[in-house]
Amino acid sequence: MLPVKRWHQAIESRYSTRNYNGRPVEPEKLALLQKMCEEFRPADSVRAVLVEDSGSGVFKGAIGSYGKIKGNPAYLAFVGKVNEPDVQEMIGYLGEGLILEATALGLDTCWVGGMFKQEAAAKAVNLAAGEQVYALTPVGYGLENDTFEEKVMRGFKTERKRKPLGSLVSGMPESHWPRWVRAGLEAARPAPSAINRQPWRFEVQEKQVVLSTDGKQDRFVARRLDCGIAMLHFELGALSRDVSLNRVLLPPPQVARFTLK
């Protein structure tokens, strides 16, 4: 069962941090993250691994060392089975859950979907046959005063700029949205995505909501992974309105269908 209140509250305080102050994470917080890695398994095809190391040989910058993760004492790796059809969206769902848990613990994080060394990451998590590391997040405490580089990277990602709901949602007029639908959509809107592209689209129908990708081409991080993040955010928002949801995963370009139980 999702810790709805805890993670829903964490949505607003979560932001990406690339530079950390090197302060160790308290053992009790690491233990709670490890426990969540073991217990939060939304699909058999994915798993999360906590690595108590900076990952200095794993993370790489956008151009050389520029934008590289620095000073984090630990990181999380999100691992999936390559041949499973829904692995990308479930990696997004799993990873965002762990990131929101870290946020609720007062820790800083940053989705890293492309700028890491696959071979080094694979060694750190002991991949099984047929598995791949799809994404990482550093874990730690960000610098109290952002460096110039950090501000540039945040500006480049336009992290707090989000498309209006009107450009992300079709179907039923907004004035007719049920409370749980509105809450879900408002929670999905600030979900993080690669270069802030927000590739999710929602169609609100009379008794269901359908999540799809925007249909554009992937270059680095799969759009279905980003949609998996939005899928979790939507569920947290909707469930915060004291409803029960059914979710069915759908083939491309659709991602999932939500209905009330």
Automatic annotation (TrEMBL):
PANTHER family given for it?
A: IODOTYROSINE DEIODINASE 1, NADPH NITROREDUCTASE
| Superkingdom in the source lineage | Bacteria
Q: SUPFAM superfamilies attached here?
A: FMN-dependent nitroreductase-like
Name this polypeptide is given: Nitroreductase
Pfam families cross-referenced by the UniProt entry:
TM1586_NiRdase
Presence of keyword Oxidoreductase = yes
Which keywords describe this protein according to UniProt? Flavoprotein, FMN, Oxidoreductase
Q: Which CDD domains match?
A: Nitro_FMN_reductase
Identify the residues that the record assigns to the Putative nitroreductase TM1586 domain, covering every copy: 9-238
Molecular function as annotated in GO: oxidoreductase activity
